[in-house]
Amino acid sequence: QVQLVESGGGLVQTGGSLRLSCAASGRSVSSYAMGWFRQAPGKEREFVVAKSWSGGNAYYADSVKGRFTISRDNAKNTVYLQMNSLKPEDTAVYYCAADHRGIATMRNYAYDYWGQGTQVTVSS
């Protein structure tokens, strides 16, 4: 079993930055694909970014491309989401997820493990 715990969320003004962390425990996720998703009130959970285990290309939603960056530190068993130039429409609960198959995907049903989420609120 893998447990994922997100942190780093909070309240920030438009144009500001936040870095989310997703700490994994239970086993190493170095061979897992890792993804970030978000869910705004009244909306479905949506894909943000995913990165394969091999450290290859990451895949970003168009809405965050050029502003968000995913990275992973396998030694710390942690994945990060650097969010810059934040907009009010980025307000949501952000979830990290792990897929044992190791290949990045935007399909949320492919992920085996999920964190509990961290709230990000961007004020205008």
Task: Explain what this protein looks like in three dimensions.
The chain is an all-beta fold and 124 residues long. Helix content is 0%, strand content 49%. The protein has strands at 3-7, 10-13, 18-25, 33-39, 46-51, 58-60, 68-73, 78-83, 92-99, 113-114, 118-123. Strands 2, 4, 5, 6, 9, 10 and 11 form a 7-stranded mixed sheet that branches. A 4-stranded antiparallel sheet has the order 1-3-8-7, with no helix packed on it. The radius of gyration is 13 Å and the shape is globular.
Brief rundown of the structure:
The protein is mainly β. It is built from no helices and 11 strands.
List keywords for this structure.
124 residues; mainly beta; seven-stranded mixed beta sheet; four-stranded antiparallel beta sheet; globular
CA gyration radius, whole angstroms: 13 Å
Largest sheet: 7 strands, mixed
Number of strands: 11
Strand content: over 45%
Helices, by number, come to 0
User: Could you state the order of secondary-structure elements as H and E?
Assistant: EEEEEEEEEEE
- For the termini, the CA-CA separation is 40 Å
Mean pLDDT: 95
Percent range for helical residues?
A: under 10%
Instruction: Quickly give the structural class.
Output: mainly beta
Name the poorly predicted regions: none
